[in-house]
Amino acid sequence: MSWAREQFGRPAREAPTPEPRIVPTAVEQGRHPVLASLPLEVRLAVYRRGHLQEVRAGERLSEGCGVQFVLTGAVGLFRRDGSGVCLRLAGPGSIVNAEALADGGARRDRRVLVPGAVLSLRGPDLVEIIGRARADRLLIDQMLAEQSLQDGDIACNALHLAPARLARWLLQLHEAATGADIQITQAELAAMLGIQRTSVNAAGKALQDQGAVRFVRGRVRILRPEILQRSACACLAPAGPEASPASRVAGAA
């Protein structure tokens, strides 16, 4: 304050506190097929009743958040046994904790792996807005898609070695981060994949020697994703929208 008076003869103005966002940006809306497929008046009601928040890497999503629409970034769904094993990566366009539509509690620990934006809404509020038929269709689709993804991961874990699985996860995280550095350590990657840290270290060093990635102080920078693509197992799946067609949710009445 005194420096401002000396320089300009008047007090320095405090920077205005930014208003919290209520409506997602056009880019965020476009990346979530379920939200984008809803009629405009229904979608606006979801935005008004929901809670839009910026989430940071490492942040845990609380139990009382209800249904969560991942607009940008990525959320990892972890076992609740403290092992650190990540069962699924929910990237842009995904829905987390759809069980809240049936008044069920979260079955997985939810931790943000890539910073972004999440729109949260209590299960009963979402049912009231979109209707019971749409809510039931959404719940069924999400549960079936999650089971299919988990079955695929089980098969992948049994068939593929650590280097191919590591490359697959790094590609998924890279896609969700839209090219930005990934804030994760090799120890965390080992826990997420359920394999020994030495195996991840060896696989990471091989990828780094090929010029595909760079590991620096708790961060991973993807330099040449095409090399990761060649190294990844064939069961690579996008971290984004599940396989359920959004039109089925939009069309239910």
Model description:
- The protein has helices at residues 2-8, 26-30, 33-37, 40-49, 123-130, 132-159, 162-176, 186-193, 197-209, 225-231, 246-251, and strands at 51-55, 67-78, 86-90, 95-96, 109-121, 182-183, 213-216, 219-222.
- Strands 1, 2, 3, 4 and 5 form a 5-stranded antiparallel β-sheet that branches. Strands 6-8-7 form a 3-stranded antiparallel β-sheet.
- Strand 2 and strand 3 (86-90) form a beta hairpin.
- It contains 11 helices and 8 strands.
- The relative contact order is 0.15.
- It is of the alpha+beta class and 253 residues long.
- The termini are far apart.
- It folds into 2 domains: 26-157 and 245-251, Jelly Rolls (Sandwich); 161-231, Arc Repressor Mutant, subunit A (Orthogonal Bundle), CATH 1.10.10.
- The longest helix has 28 residues, at 132-159.
Write the layout of secondary structure elements.
Blueprint: H1 2-8, H2 26-30, H3 33-37, H4 40-49, E1 51-55, E2 67-78, E3 86-90, E4 95-96, E5 109-121, H5 123-130, H6 132-159, H7 162-176, E6 182-183, H8 186-193, H9 197-209, E7 213-216, E8 219-222, H10 225-231, H11 246-251
Antiparallel strand pairs: 1-5, 2-3, 2-4, 2-5, 6-8, 7-8
